[in-house]
Write a structure and sequence with these properties.
This protein is about 60% helix and about 5% strand. It is mainly alpha-helical. The radius of gyration is 40 Å and the shape is elongated. The protein starts with a helix and ends with a helix.
């Protein structure tokens, strides 16, 4: 480039190099032998030593012999000197307006690579662009939908946050769009960080927005962990009536308050990935924030309380459920299933029996109501009048003062209750216990040798059952199941109790038991049962006669065999051939009754937790919730002394109790040592190894960080990393910062520094 070429541009005087500046340049040359001459004017030398200033850039283009009457002129486009040991040169360096214009053009044309380069160039030369340009860059990158550009947009946000510029450069609309796009792309960590950043900026997102973000997040394990933490963070502002809704200044904050749907989403996500203790924490906050539960919440509560062994909490809910109209029963299928499961887990067979009978009574009433409704409809269809619906009198009938919103029953529930009805089925719009429920209950009675109680229960079931034949009744199926399991004496005892209660027993029940006695070669019991059959006036079938005759022959009782054959002939009952008999046996083997199959499943299921463990966990949880930690510790020691093995629920209750009882972190440290010892135990030692889960370790880590036990916190982090568990880095970083602001001791020790580094570098 020549001087003439430069002269064609508009030149403006920039600096007159005289006096001090001339001496500065001359001294620079004399003090730096490596400096090269960039220009000469009136005998003055200019050195590239000055051009090492960070505001100067270099290029190989330039001019030589520049002499402009003692003045150095700069064009707006030629602001910086340059030299590379070649003739005098100047570099074209753009002004901010030109850089901003190029960045805008790149965004308009969707040239994302050029836009990012332009942004970085502007940032290096002038700092961050103006607010509108930054917001537009974030919006364009977010709307691309590509994970690469979403990460770039997230990096832009983080860089501004780290420079403490967020209030000046962020637009809430840009952050909301980016947060939603990150969540929908299954990038929960960046999405949660931006959501938390918005709250820190007091740009409070509405509950409709952040609950939508949470809905996307709960589809993965890490996202579900973060979703529950976000709801907990939101509840912090509103629990225990901290915010006055009457003040107009609080309206932006109140728009962020969690609602029922937001809680349900987080609860459902926690349940889906087995984080039941975190879900229970959310339920407690739900009450403190003042959010009412709906039908979905009740189903979720039931699963949470059942998983955590909170049977008393389940029983408290029943008084509200009982007031629900029968037409809404299907929304509470999960509740009945969970309550029945809890009773059976605790070995409370009486409560389980009462619940089943209560369900049968409700089902019977619902059937009668259905019959009555059909008759009313038939009458109306014939032209009759005078039947009004409950709402036609102009009054709104409130059936129950419930602490939840029963009217909020969505067509598409968040909880697929039908898939969780293991013990309770929904058939013909009626809730009824299924065969698995009866199998669990029958096995419980038989294991404890409570035959009389079982028979009494079956008698009550028979009276509450709908119109069904004796052969298909529950009592008949239970007796058949006992016979199939070779519990012949128990089956006979149940028949005797049924007869004593004047409940008729079908011939099929007697036949199956007679054949089983014959097969077991028990002639005394056969004779006794035959007398009962004849006394009841029942007629045996041909297969039963065949079994009896073969049994008599096997016992060499020829007269008895002939007598039975004669009786069969007189009754005109046909005998089955051997081939036909064998075919029937094969069919019977292939088509086992449902209740028999369920009983086999129960017997083969050896993964049940000891009933005593559930009881002790309930006791310890009660003491911890009441902050009676001395009693809780005594109960824990008594539990282990009696040979019961504490599980994750036990330790979670104890840690939560120590934490909320004045921060007893030293006791948590001692408990951690016991937990590690149990986790490394061998089964041969008589101690069941403790299997850590993410919830328990996260609770331990949180308390160690809060208590400034950083060495122990590093142990927990190491264990979580080995098991590839998720760690909420943002949460623990914030806890450390808060501890530093409060002046907590121990934050400057090596363990604290190592913990900070660990949280900063971990992905």
């Amino acid at each position: 480039m020549t001087v003439a070429a430069i002269g064609k541009k508009k030149l403006m005087p920039a600096t007159v190099f005289t006096g001090f500046f001339s001496n500065f340049f001359l001294s620079s040359v004399s003090s730096n032998q490596s400096a090269s001459v960039t220009g000469q004017h009136n005998g003055r030398m200019y050195s590239n030593h000055y051009c090492n200033h960070p505001k100067f850039a270099f290029s190989d283009e330039g001019v030589s012999g520049l002499s402009l009457h003692g003045l150095v002129y700069f064009s707006p486009s030629y602001r910086y000197f340059s030299s590379a040991g070649s003739p005098t040169i100047l570099k074209q360096a753009r002004n901010p307006s030109m850089l901003a214009e190029e960045l805008e053009n790149a965004l308009d044309e969707q040239r994302l690579e050029d836009a990012m380069q332009g942004y970085e160039h502007f940032k290096q030369l002038e700092g961050f662009p103006r607010k509108s340009l930054v917001s537009r860059l974030i919006n364009v990158l977010a709307h691309s939908g590509d994970s690469k550009w979403l990460e770039k947009a997230y990096a832009v946000v983080l860089s501004i946050v780290n420079e403490k510029k967020q209030r000046q450069l962020f637009d809430q609309e840009a952050l909301t769009q980016l947060c939603l796009r990150l969540a929908s792309a299954q990038m929960p960590v960046p999405a949660s960080t931006i959501l938390r950043t918005m709250v820190d900026m007091e740009e409070y997102p509405s509950v409709n927005f952040w609950s939508t973000v949470v809905t996307h997040m709960v589809k993965t394990y890490n996202g579900a962990c973060l979703a529950s933490e976000i709801v907990i963070d939101m509840c912090y502002f509103f629990k225990d009536g901290r915010v006055d809704p009457r003040k107009r200044s609080n309206q932006p904050l109140l728009s962020m308050k969690p609602n029922t749907e937001a809680f349900n989403i987080a609860l459902n996500g926690s349940l889906a990935f087995g984080m039941t203790r975190k879900a229970e924490e959310l339920l407690e906050l739900m009450t403190r924030v003042g959010v009412k539960a709906d039908a979905n919440s009740i189903a979720l509560m039931a699963q949470i309380y059942e998983s955590n062994g909170r049977r008393e909490e389940l029983k408290k809910l029943k008084r509200f459920i009982d007031e629900i109209p029968g037409m809404l029963d299907h929304h509470y299928q999960q509740y009945y299933n969970s309550l029945l499961t809890a009773h059976l887990k605790f070995g409370d067979l009486v409560a389980a029996s009462e619940l089943i009978l209560d369900m049968l009574k409700r089902a019977k009433a619902a059937r009668n109501s259905l019959v009555a409704a059909k008759s009313v409809l038939a009458t109306i269809s014939k032209g009759s009048k005078g039947y009004a619906t409950p709402m036609e009198d102009g009054k709104e009938h409130n059936c129950s003062p419930m602490p939840f919103k029963a009217e909020k029953l969505q067509a598409q529930s968040l909880v697929e209750v039908s898939s969780h009805g293991e013990l309770v089925s929904f058939e013909n719009r009626i809730l009824i216990p299924n065969h698995k429920a009866y199998a669990k209950l029958v096995k419980g009675y038989l294991d404890t040798n409570r035959i009389n109680d079982l028979a009494e229960f079956l008698v009550k079931v028979h009276r509450e059952e709908g119109p069904v034949s004796m052969e298909n009744s529950i009592s008949a199926q239970v007796i058949d199941a006992c016979v199939a399991m070779d519990w012949l004496d128990q089956a006979h005892d149940i028949i005797d109790e049924m007869n004593a209660a004047e409940i008729p027993v079908g011939i099929g029940v007697y036949s199956s038991l007679l054949k089983a006695y014959c097969k077991a070669h028990r002639p005394m019991e056969v004779s006794t049962l035959l007398k009962e059959v004849r006394k009841a006036g029942l007629q045996l079938d041909g297969s039963c006669y065949d079994a009896l005759i073969e049994s008599r022959f096997a016992n060499k009782d020829l007269y008895g065999a002939v007598g039975l054959f004669k009786e069969m002939r007189e009754a005109k009952v046909s005998s089955f051939s051997n081939s036909c008999q064998s075919q029937i046996n094969e069919v019977a083997k292939e088509s086992k009754p449902i209740l028999v199959a369920r009983l086999l499943d129960e017997i083969n299921d050896n993964q049940q937790v000891a009933v005593g463990t559930h009881d002790w966990n309930s006791v310890i949880h009660f003491f911890c919730k009441a902050h009676l930690m001395n009693d809780a510790q005594k109960a824990y020691k008594k539990m282990t002394a009696l040979g019961y093995h504490p599980n994750t629920h036990t330790f979670h209750s104890l840690i939560h109790g120590y934490s909320t009882s004045g921060g007893m972190y030293q006791e948590i440290t001692m408990l951690w040592a016991d937990m590690r010892r149990r986790a490394s135990a061998f089964p041969e030692s008589g101690v069941n190894p403790l299997n850590f889960d993410q919830e328990l370790l996260d609770t331990v880590l949180y308390n160690f960080v809060r208590g400034a036990y950083f060495a122990r916190a590093l142990e927990v982090i190491s264990m979580m990393e080995q098991q590839k568990m998720f760690i909420d880095k943002f949460k623990y970083t914030q806890v450390i910062l808060i501890q530093g602001e409060r002046g907590s001791g121990g934050l400057d020790n090596p363990s604290s520094a190592l913990l900070k580094y660990h949280l900063r570098t971990r992905e």
